[in-house]
Amino acid sequence: MADRLTIARPYARAAFEEARADGGLGNWSNALAIAAEVVKDRRVEALLGNPHVTPEELAALVSGIAGAQLGEQGANFVRTLADNHRLGYLPEIATLFNTFKDAAEGVADVTVSSASALDAAQQKKLSAALEQRLRRKVRLHYELDPSLIGGAVLRTGDLVIDGSIRSRLERIAYELTA
Amino acid sequence: MAIKATEISDLIKQRIENFKSVTEARNVGTIVSVTDGITRIHGLADARYGEMLEFPGNTFGLALNLEQDSVGAVVLGEYKHLKEGDTVKTTNRILEVPVGRELLGRVVDSLGVPLDGKGPVKSTQTAPIERVAPGVIYRQSVSQPVQTGYKAVDSMVPIGRGQRELIIGDRQTGKTALAVDTIINQKTSGIKCIYVAIGQKQSTIANVVRKLEEHGALAHTVVVAAAASTPAAMQYIAAYSGVTMGEFFMDNGEDALIIYDDLSKQAVAYRQIALLLRRPPGREAFPGDVFYLHSRLLERSARVNAEYVEMVSKGRVKGKTGSLTGLPIIETQAGDVTAFVPTNVISITDGQIFLETDLFNAGIRPAMNAGISVSRVGGAAQTDIIKKLGGGIRLALAQYRELAAFSQFASDLDEATRRQLERGQRVTEVMKQKQYAPMSVAEMALSIYAVNNGYMDKVELKKVVAFEAALQAFAHSNYRAMLDAINGQPKFSEENQAQLKKCIEDFVATGTY
What we know:
The complex is a heterodimer of chains A (178) and B (513). With 178 residues, chain A is an alpha+beta fold. Chain A is built from 8 helices and 4 strands, in the order H-H-H-H-H-H-E-H-E-E-E-H. In chain A, strands 2-1-3-4 form a 4-stranded mixed sheet. Chain A starts with a helix and ends with a helix. Chain B is an alpha/beta fold and 513 residues long. Chain B is built from 16 helices and 19 strands. In chain B, strands 8, 12, 13, 14, 15, 16, 17, 18 and 19 form a 9-stranded mixed sheet that branches. Chain B is elongated and about 85 Å long. The mean pLDDT of chain B is 92. The A-B interface holds A 1-3, 5-6, 9, 157-163, 168, 171-172, 174-176, 178 and B 12, 15-16, 19, 21, 23-29, 32, 40, 42-46, 58, 67-70, 89.
């Protein structure tokens, strides 16, 4: 996983800088997402390593399915990837592209796992607190996890803020047995 | 001892009440692979070099490789329960081990966890295992001796408090015996000892511990054991844990002695970790930082001045200097001292004691090669009497070695040469010493004085060892006061010389040898 990201990073950065230069961050993001979906398809995936299929044919295939969404620059990008045999890395490139885009726009995705559903007031309070802590606008994604017993766990990137009852109990258990 | 049920629940209640419940923000990652105790972790963007990582199941690890998208970490201890996808958290802490006087007499592993079944270690303090050595401003010259109790070592390669003296030799040449005897000889000197066993058989470690116990030396000793069966990471950090425990005594204005038995195996454990972390191999497949591995460890052995002790102990201990003497052991392969690790450690230390298989098999024990064994700083710390007498020993042995080689071809030797040869042979005999029989300064002085001044020249070569033993016994029963006086004031004074002379002449007159 880590190695794939390392390979994908220069492509994602190149695409991101190109997109930022001509102001088409949103278009590029959509185009990459579609292209990523295309190469994730099992039928396309099988063709990627096939020696009988030339890079030109692969590039044409991906551009053909993704169609107008890609635009001229997008098509060129796909062709470069095909020439370097890196089309399979499109999902990682799309993810990294979005990370760069969020960082540039000052937005963070935060996943909120809680034992019970949060009401509107709680959500608002949480979002305000997070915006202050992360110094970014936040996009909250909610999920329910009854196994937490109570409280909530917030995740953004590598950072985890764990305020759940479950983790507290685990730590009490550790303190008592250690 | 009966424990009441209420006591336990009270205790638990108290601990729960004292439990601080803070919501913590931590950096997390997921395990990508686990290979022989090395894990690759995706994420952990904020992990720092050498930071402790928390794995599931109360397991901890050490972050050693920080890469763009992953962190390479070694697991300290069991790693069989870890699997791909497990969550790893940062702890914001550097690895720490317990330190303090409570560790004396205990056998612990690399993390300070007791292995001797004597209950938990009741130490209240901990210290990080990696620390920068005291700087030049805080150091003081080596000026006090560490008595090993071996005539050969104390007279020819003296060791001072705060010195690093390498013990090097092939397998089965008495390296560990020399080190263990040095620990046993510290019973009365007040020097606290740390014995770090790295990559040894459990049975060997058990033997050493038993011998220390038998000779009443365990009470002032901490044994840090990382046996051959423990993971490489534990063997790698054992040396740093040991030195941290030793630094506690140095920081409190006391003298300590640490033995690393042995650093070759520690380097091999580190090589294993480095190769599994995919660091590029260099000479003998060791990674590039093997020199730093040992230099940063041995630099922590030092003699520090009173200001340092006062500063580190926050004013509790005033006017006392501290020291940590290092005795690293290196095992060579077939006498090859030009291999990578031996050359490194030779260049780091302040001298070395070479032990040779040939000498050992010839019955010369300790099997020290006097010609190439040196102590670069110990001379300043040697006791006066042994220093004056030891000069004669070195000279006699050097002349003997020179003559011995070519005298084999000469049919008839002149009187002077013959006498030098005979003296050399006798000195070699006198330098022999049994294991677990360390000698005091006065006893050494007596033996060396006797051989230096020709009292043994008329004794048959085979009987020199018996002569020496009888002389010691005679002095112990008839010249107790003289021995005590010399031990109390180890000066090469006229009076002491006269006393030694009188004692030996009295003994020779009895003719009981």
